[in-house]
Amino acid sequence: MLLRLFLAPVTRLIPAALLAGACLFPLAIYSQEAEEPGTLSVEAAGAGAGAAEKPRDDSGLWEDNFVIAKSKAYKENKDLFMLFTGSDWIELCQIYEKDILNQPAFRAELGDQFIMLKLDFPQKTPQPNNIRLQNQLLFAKYRIRGFPTVILADDDARPYAVLGYQKSSPKAHGALVATLQLTRQRRDQKLEAADKAEGVEKAKLLAEAIPVLPGNLAARFYRDEMEQAIKADPENQTGKAAEFKRLIADVDYSNKMSKLNDEVRWSEMIELTDTYIVENKLQGLEKQNALLNKLGIQEKQGNVVEMLRTLQEIIAIDPTSGPGQKAQGVIAKMRSNQFQNSLNP
Question: What is the pLDDT of residue 335?
Answer without folding.
Answer: 84
